[in-house]
Design goal:
Layout: E1 3-8, E2 17-21, E3 26-31, H1 38-41, E4 57-59, H2 65-68, H3 71-76, E5 82-85, H4 89-118, H5 129-136, E6 139-141, E7 148-151, E8 154-160, E9 168-175, E10 180-185, E11 208-212, H6 223-240, E12 244-247, H7 253-266, E13 274-278, H8 280-291, H9 301-306, H10 311-314, E14 318-320, H11 324-331, E15 337-341, H12 351-358, E16 365-368, H13 377-383, E17 388-391, E18 394-397, E19 401-404, H14 414-421, E20 430-434, H15 438-450, E21 455-456, E22 463-465
Parallel strand pairs: 3-4, 4-5, 5-6, 10-11, 11-20, 12-15, 12-16, 13-14, 13-15, 16-19, 20-21
Antiparallel strand pairs: 1-2, 1-22, 2-3, 7-8, 8-9, 9-10, 17-18
Helix pairs in contact: 4-5, 4-8
């Protein structure tokens, strides 16, 4: 008998981590960072509830930090197994984790200066660049749709999830003494409206299904409406002379945004002449995307032809701001520019500087294009409940216009989740809703119950046997 324990992204969106124990093996599905409020992020400091040295392998759905960000900590504390992922996840994992280690070290150094002055004990970073390098040496790639034996009693395969480059639906075949059990982990399912990647693969058979529920309580607005609002926002900003500030996740959302801006530019709907990508990580991720253009869909022949030549060939006026000096120069631009920067939830990075310099301007426009977790600055802006916000030590008046463009999300919405799960044949798998805030998971659970399919919502630490 096998056992699955829910350790993260359970009752919340971040910290994806699930422990699978069979009679012969122990593996993790993902090992991600908890992100959001300070109390949420403190969960990253809590010791693992298992011995990392006892884990035989990790199966990774994709390279977003809420799915991979604690892997170096796992290695630091004794893990020596292999980390299996899709091929395109390889370069993105290196990019994301090295950047995360750099930020962790920087933040720890700043905090330790404060602690030293106060006579308090100094802190150690969650992990270091050396831990990242050790983790990267353990990577093993499996091509999409190819089943491979990863342990004596477990075969794994990865299937297109359509969320970011390399994102995967994970399928595990577990050899029990008298039968084979199939566990399917959706990872993060992509929005079929996403312009670059292929739609999520259809899976039809499983005994256990772990299904994300990020947008389980809503449907995205129609894509045409979203693009219309984006056109109007760009036009209004140009008319009023303000900047358009777009917080964006470096991997996935940024590349989709550049695609759509290029499409609108070809329609004459992008009056701004200056478009800045102010994120070294997003610049690196964009190059990785261009290197893997063979994985893009082929709905747009013109883009498919231009993509291998790079993003600046697709979007005229796109400028890369790589250095801190470049970013500070962008801060001095008071209008007429589009500025794309991370982090996507406004929890750190250069976007906070751009918000500090633009949020108080009545002619500025802030465009939110992705999920904003509870406790983040991005969520505060979306909720619109505060007239002033503290950013980088300054009280800033919220005078800019805030736009939320849900259809640009890289996650499937409620109807899309139900449609994807509806392809599973009878007998339906045991269904567990993960990776969603409470209201989202409960709403999706209700939808499944109406169709006669019992959906369970596990609590952190819950275990199931099968």
């Amino acid at each position: 008998m096998s056992q699955l324990t829910f350790l993260g992204a359970t009752g919340q969106v971040t910290g994806s981590c699930y422990l699978l124990e069979t009679s012969n093996s122990r593996i993790l599905l993902d090992c991600g960072l908890f992100q959001g409020s300070k109390s949420t992020e403190l969960q990253n400091e809590i010791p693992f509830t298992f011995d990392p040295a006892s884990i035989d392998a990790v199966v990774l759905s994709h390279a977003h930090l809420d799915h991979c960000g604690r892997l170096p900590k796992l290695v630091k504390e004794g893990f020596k197994g292999q980390v299996f992922s899709s091929e395109a996840t390889f370069p993105l994992l290196e990019l994301m984790l090295k950047d995360a280690a750099h930020l962790l070290l920087r933040d720890t150094e700043w905090e330790n200066k404060r602690r030293e002055r106060a006579g308090k004990p100094l802190l150690q970073p969650l992990y270091t660049l050396e831990d990242v390098e050790a983790l990267l040496s353990l990577r093993q790639a499996i091509p999409y749709n190819e089943s491979r034996q990863i342990l004596s009693d477990i075969d794994a395969s990865f299937h297109e999830a359509g969320h970011i480059l390399g994102s995967s639906i994970v399928q595990l075949e577990i050899q029990e003494p008298d039968q084979v059990k199939t566990l399917v982990f959706s990872g993060d399912l992509g929005n079929p409206n996403a312009p670059l990647l292929r739609d999520p693969a259809i899976i039809t058979k499983a005994d256990i299904l772990l299904l994300e529920s990020t947008y389980g309580d809503r449907d995205h607005q129609p894509l045409d409406n979203t693009l219309k609002e984006l056109r109007e926002t760009l036009h209004d900003a140009a008319q009023s002379g303000g900047n358009v500030i777009i917080p964006a996740f470096a991997v996935g959302r940024t590349q989709d945004l550049i695609y759509w801006l290029g499409k609108l530019q070809r329609e004459g709907a992008v009056p701004q002449q200056q478009i800045f990508l102010d994120s070294p990580m997003a610049i690196g991720a964009s190059q990785i995307y261009a290197d893997h253009a063979h994985l893009f869909n082929i709905d747009d022949p013109e883009f498919t032809r231009v993509a291998p030549n790079g993003w600046q060939a697709w979007l005229s006026g796109l400028r890369y701001s790589e250095t801190a000096e470049d970013s500070m120069a962008v801060n001095r631009i008071t209008g007429g520019a589009i500025i794309i920067a991370g982090s996507g939830m406004c929890t750190g990075g250069r976007i906070r500087h751009h918000l500090k310099y633009n949020l108080w301007r009545h002619n500025a426009h802030i465009v939110i294009t992705g999920f904003q977790a509870e406790g983040t600055l991005g969520r505060t802006l979306v909720d619109g409940k505060k007239a002033t916000i503290k950013i980088l030590g300054s009280e800033v008046n919220v005078a800019a216009k805030i736009h939320t463009l849900g259809a640009l999300s890289a996650h499937a919405d409620q109807s899309q989740l139900l449609q994807w799960a509806g392809h599973f044949e009878q007998p339906k798998p045991r269904l567990y809703l993960i990776h969603g805030e409470k209201n989202a998971a409960l709403s999706l659970q209700t939808c499944f119950h109406r169709s006669g399919w019992n959906a369970n919502i596990p609590k952190p630490g819950d275990s199931i046997s099968f």
